[in-house]
Amino acid sequence: MFRILIITAGMIASLYGATVISIIGTGGIFNFFYLVLGIVLIAIGAFWKTGKSKERKWQKVILILAGLGLTVFLAVEAAIITCSLKETPAGADYVILLGTQYRNDGPSVDYRARLMSAYEYLTENPDTFLIATGGQGDNEPVSEAEGARRFLTARGISEDRILIEDRSTNTVQNIRNAYELLKESGNDPAQCGVVIVSASYHLLRARFIAERIGFYDVGTKGSTGLPVLMPHFYTREFFALIKDGVLSVFDL
Question: Could you say which of 3.40.50.620, 3.20.20.70, 2.60.40.10, 3.30.70.1350 is the CATH number of the domain covering 94-226?
Answer without folding.
Answer: 3.40.50.620
